[in-house]
C-alpha cells in the first residue's frame, strides 16, 4: 500500500529537500513520490538568499573611505587609490573589482549597510561566526541558529524543504542548525539526476532489497530509523522527478553565469530551484578565502570580482525569469579587518564591516554612518549598526516573522527595504 499524500506531507516528504540518502529508490516509493510531485502546486512566496563570506572580509577595502586621511596613512601599500575607486559619493566608493555592484546600485538593486558589528567584538573566526549565526552576542554555540528558529515559526505550504544549504564542501551552517526543520545540503543538481532510473550493480540491488524489506514493516514512528529512511528516499526521488519534469515542460532560458566561479555555479543552482517553483524560503551558500593576512591586494580583488559578477548574473537571471520581486540577498562576513595593514601585505582580524542587501525589493543606497577612523577601540573602528537590526528588519518586513520571537529582544529596524 502506497503512502497517502497526507501521510507523506505529515512526514515532511515534500518535493524539494534533495537529501542524498542513497543512490536508489524502491518502486513503491518512486510511485508515491511521482504522485506527490505531480500533485504539488507551485506556491510563490518570499525568498531570502544568504551568501556567507568566510574568513573576515576587509570592509575598508570593499566600501572604501577614499577621502579619509587615516585610511591612506594606516594603509600605505593596501589603500585603494582614489582614482580607481568606484565612487558612490564624495567620501566612499566601491572597490574597482565591484563594478557589477556599482551597476546594481545604479539599477537600485543594492543597499549597503555601513559599520555593522556587535558590542564587545570577538576576533575569533569560529566564535564570531557563531555569534552571527545564532544572533546571540553571549557566545552559545549550542543554540539553534537564527534562521533555524525562524523556520520553526514559519507557516506556509506543506511539503517542500523550508531551507536548503548549497555547497559541496561546507557543513550545514550554524544559522540553519538546531531547529525542528530538516535542512538538507546539496552541491549539484546533476547528483540527483543520476539517482533517477533503475539501479545497477549488486550493491544497488542490495540497497533496494533492504529498503523494500523495511517498507513492508509497519510505518515508522516519529524519529525512528524507518521514518528517516522513508523520508530521505521519498524526498530525494520526488525532488529529482519534479525538477526533471519541470525542465522538460519549461526549458530554462540561457543565463549568463561565469563558469569559472564556484559561487556563480551555486547561485545558478539556487536560481534553478527557485524557477522550478519550490516553496523553499531560505537558501544559504558560501564564498571563502577572505582571511587575507598576507598578499591581500590581488587575492581580495579576485574574491570581490567573483562576488560581484556572480550576484549580478544571479539577479539578472531572476529578472529575466520574472522571479526578482520575491528574492532578497543578504551578504555578510563574521568581521572586518583591522585599519592598520600588517607587515605581510595583508590585514588582521578586525570588527565592523559593511553588509550588503541585494534585489529589487531593497531600498538602494548607503545606510548607516561611515566608519569614523579617528575613533578607534583596540585599534579598530567602532560599529554603528548592530547586525541584529538587519536580521530584525528581514524577519519583520521580509519573512514576516516577529523578530522579538526569534531574537529574544527588540531592535530598531532599518529602512533598507522598499516601503519601509
UniProtKB/TrEMBL annotation:
Transmembrane segments: none annotated. It comes from the Bacteria. PROSITE patterns: PROKAR_LIPOPROTEIN, TAT. It holds the Pfam family DUF1501. PANTHER family: BLL7424 PROTEIN (PTHR43737), DUF1501 DOMAIN-CONTAINING PROTEIN (PTHR43737:SF1). This is DUF1501 domain-containing protein. It comes from Singulisphaera acidiphila (strain ATCC BAA-1392 / DSM 18658 / VKM B-2454 / MOB10).
